[in-house]
Design a protein that fits this description.
By secondary structure, the protein is α+β, with helices and mostly antiparallel strands. It has one domain: Pantoate--beta-alanine Ligase, Chain: A,domain 2 (2-Layer Sandwich), CATH 3.30.1300.30. It is built from two helices and four strands, in the order H-H-E-E-E-E. The chain has a four-stranded antiparallel sheet, with helices on one face. It is rod-shaped and about 95 Å long. The N and C termini lie far apart (about 105 Å).
């Protein structure tokens, strides 16, 4: 029975800590790289959508162009659908702009603003 207790079986604490350290040193940079590429693409979609929506809002509100439109555009090989809807009530105008990602088939940005109609 004494012989069984004296055998070196298992790993020491130093060996386990070293193995964990090496594992995390290899996995952490790989995780950062994958997250960077995913987040960068997603953030680029959002930035493009914000710019498109702001342009449509500016066209509608500042230039008094209260017409409903729907069209598609491509930015950096990514396709977007722009939908501008107008609702009026006397002198108030509700401008609603939605930007869709055609690749993901979902709304990325949805802007709504209300302004008064200027009579020329």
């Amino acid at each position: 029975m004494k012989k069984n207790l004296e055998k070196d079986e298992g790993y020491t604490l130093i060996e386990v800590l070293t193995a964990f350290s090496l594992f995390f040193l290899l996995i952490f940079p790989l995780h950062q790289l994958i997250s960077f590429f995913y987040c960068d693409s997603h953030n680029l979609d959002i930035l493009n959508a914000i710019n498109l929506a702001e342009s449509e809002m500016e066209l509608a509100v500042l230039k008094n162009n209260f017409s409903e439109i729907s069209y598609t555009t491509e930015i950096n090989r990514k396709k977007y659908k722009i939908l501008r809807q107008i609702k009026t009530d006397r002198n108030l105008v509700l401008v609603e702009v939605k930007i869709y990602s055609l690749r993901k088939n979902r709304v990325i940005i949805h802007f709504i603003t209300c302004c008064s109609r200027k009579d020329d």
